[in-house]
Amino acid sequence: MKTLISPEKKDWEALMERPQADYETLQSTVKEVFDAVAQNGDEALRDYCERFDGVRPKELLLPANEIKRAEGLLNESLKQAIQQAYRNIKAFHEAQISGRTEVETQTGVRCWQEQRPIEKVGLYIPGGSAPLFSTLLMLAIPAKIAGCKEIVLCTPPSREGIHPAILYTAQLCGVDKIATLGGIQAIAALTLGTESVPAVYKLFGPGNQYVTAAKQYATRYRVAIDMPAGPSEVLVVADQSVPASFIAADLLSQAEHGPDSQVVLVAQSEEILPRVQEALAEQLAVLPRSEIARKALQNSLAVVFEDREVANEFINDYAPEHYIIMSEDEDYFVDHCYNAGSVFVGTFSPESAGDYASGTNHTLPTNGYAKQYSGVHLNSFTKAITFQKLSEEGIQNLGPAVEEMALAEGLQGHQQAVRVRLNYLKSKS
Ligand SMILES: NC(=O)c1ccc[n+]([C@@H]2O[C@H](COP(=O)([O-])OP(=O)(O)OC[C@H]3O[C@@H](n4cnc5c(N)ncnc54)[C@H](O)[C@@H]3O)[C@@H](O)[C@H]2O)c1
Ligand SMILES: N[C@H](CO)Cc1c[nH]c[nH+]1
Ligand SMILES: [Zn+2]
Q1: Over the stretch 30-41, which tens digit does the pLDDT of each residue have?
Q2: What is the ipTM of this complex?
Q3: Which of 49, 100, 387, 408 has a CA that sits 20 to 30 A from residue 260's CA?
């Protein structure tokens, strides 16, 4: 980890940079795959599966009996854990159901807004380096609560097929359309539609830089995306009261996701650093994914700011995907947090709790996009539609103002739509 003591503000921008693959190479690969899928459908999907994942699936959509079979392959304690997570995530997302907003803006003019589901959605479940069945809970549960009609799931195939925990979770959530597709080709299939894979209206889910670039590219085809949810990251702010082993474990929990993950420690005192370095070394020595985590740590950062206001400004500028606050200044940092995907407050709130089972969603904006995007939530799966109904009295009350404004914009057709009604009502009375 690169260590800096009170870096000056002019140097912050460089510190905010996340590890990035070469943009031009990414874009040209994404375009190549989209063009091929547009032209050759399923056949192109099989070709790219073979090239990027080393398998050529015969059936791109999994048959229902294979999905059912997974239940028998999972041990009981894992099933219980998944069910516990399911209940918490469902409870938290059900609580987000927002009713209809209705206002009579003036007499006879009634306006209301309701959430209606996005009918067709595509869920991407990462599976390149770990089978993230937890992501399936995070996406399928709110999609179901929202009432989405068609839910299509894509996840990368391996020689052993799809991991049984992904299939079990899909069945638990009531998702039965599963395509064995990963990476750019999965996103292209869900965007363009092929013989086997239906096109959807909105794409959800995290992924590596290929997946994220493909989702951003997909928006040119009239498909929406949840947000750029790329390589995982965490920022921990800590003071000297926190056990170094907690800080190290939290940093490693995200560093182990991939070599392009980034973790940041904002220490409120320099004295913390050697203790954290020691704890990191100790924990890395026994971490099965230590090679990946070590690479991520090379792109990572420890900064010291003794002044909590400066620390807070740095944190909001960095806009972390996950933000862990372990400090006696907890209330200050919570109250002054403006840019973060999800916040973990206090010494006993490890980020892993939110990754799996506390109830919040783990599909979150990375790479500084927490400045403008929220993580996935229930209304990511809905659209707010507005309605209005004007009574005779309502059009009489509102009409003259609309006419006046339409004329001032030089739009007589608009004025006419009001005038014919007002004339009609006048002739009736
Ligand atoms: N932000 C979030 O909310 C969030 C949540 C969970 C996971 N994540 C991140 O998701 C990522 C998962 O990545 P992953 O790689 O394990 O799985 P993945 O499923 O995202 O990507 C695997 C796919 O990448 C494609 N690919 C690999 N190398 C390629 C190449 N050279 N050219 C073209 N395509 C290639 C392959 O098709 C493969 O199927 C991690 O970075 C993790 O940190 C983020
Ligand atoms: N930390 C990831 C989000 O960035 C989510 C995850 C799934 N499994 C483990 N972690
Ligand atoms: Zn994680």
Answers
A1: 999 999 999 999
A2: 0.98
A3: 49
